[in-house]
Write a structure and sequence with these properties.
Length: 280
């Protein structure tokens, strides 16, 4: 039986450019989630509010008797802040809880973070997967509602009167998505159990909302909104959509709290996402 030489041979494959490794991580995570039938069902259900609003727009533009239901800036604000927010919560938990925690449990960070993949690329890949699904349930249906309004109305009159809606939807959706994404990734990097991460995320959201509600009942001060990330997000959202803010708290202060939370999440990721576990 012949023995073939196993010495040095030139690499005959295609060399990928540096800086593109995050795309592999993102695309793999997205494909894995799309194979999950329960998650696909969740994505489908998340578009039911869009369907309901589209029917309302159709009826209001074709029947003068219910013209009072015609969309306004508040319609899109409520759509993102009230109807889609629960789906942001569930999609964030479903997709994000195990993004880093599962790799830590399998001790895969040492493999991921070997050259030429960097920590920035690793985090970018994981974040891109979650951001993609969150934008699918926030920014995309909201923009589609604008398109539906134009098609049913047969004119650009509504858009011409509300040109700020496209940037408002984009800014609020991305702020909402980035806050959820980096907060979840930071929590996922703190544990090896995706279930525990999901509980932590739900606990943070529900606990801060409860504390904010109790604080308001005791003090009747809207400054309590700073305790809850969701309340701060709502305050900024009201300003972005040019409707009266629901709290007396300065919106720039609310925005600053959101920026601090995102920055804190990035600091946690920088410390926790390492090729070798550092014990202090």
């Amino acid at each position: 039986m012949p023995i073939h030489d196993q010495g040095y041979r030139r690499f005959l494959g295609r060399r990928e450019g540096r800086g593109n490794a995050w795309l592999v991580i993102a695309s793999t995570a997205i494909r894995n989630m799309l194979r999950n039938r329960k998650f696909l069902a969740l994505l489908i259900v998340s578009w039911l509010p869009f369907l309901g609003h589209a029917i309302t727009i159709y009826l209001s533009t074709n029947f003068q008797q219910i013209a009072i239901l015609q969309p306004t800036a508040s319609t899109f604000r409520e759509f993102l802040g009230r109807w889609q927010q629960p789906f942001v919560f569930f999609v964030t938990i479903y997709v994000g809880a195990g993004l880093v925690a599962n790799d830590r449990r399998a001790n895969a960070l040492q493999i991921y973070l070997s050259k030429p993949l960097t920590r920035v690329e690793y985090i970018a890949g994981k974040a891109t997967a979650l951001v993609t699904f969150l934008l699918f349930v926030t920014w995309l249906p909201a923009i589609m509602l604008l398109v539906v309004q134009i098609l049913f109305a047969g004119s650009f009159a509504f858009i011409q009167k509300n040109l700020f809606l496209f940037p408002a939807i984009t800014v609020f959706s991305f702020l909402q998505v980035l806050l959820a994404t980096f907060a979840m990734l930071a929590l996922s990097s703190l544990s090896k159990s995706s279930r525990f991460v999901a509980i932590m995320y739900a606990g943070v959201i529900l606990f801060t909302d409860a504390i904010q509600g109790m604080f308001w009942l005791m003090t009747r001060s809207s400054a309590a909104s700073l305790i809850s990330p969701a309340a701060s997000l709502n305050q900024v959202g009201d300003v972005v959509f040019r409707i009266p803010p629901r709290y007396d708290t300065p919106w720039l202060l609310s925005l600053g709290m959101l920026v601090v939370l995102i920055g804190l999440s990035l600091v946690i990721l920088e410390r926790r996402v390492r090729g070798v576990e550092v014990v202090t």
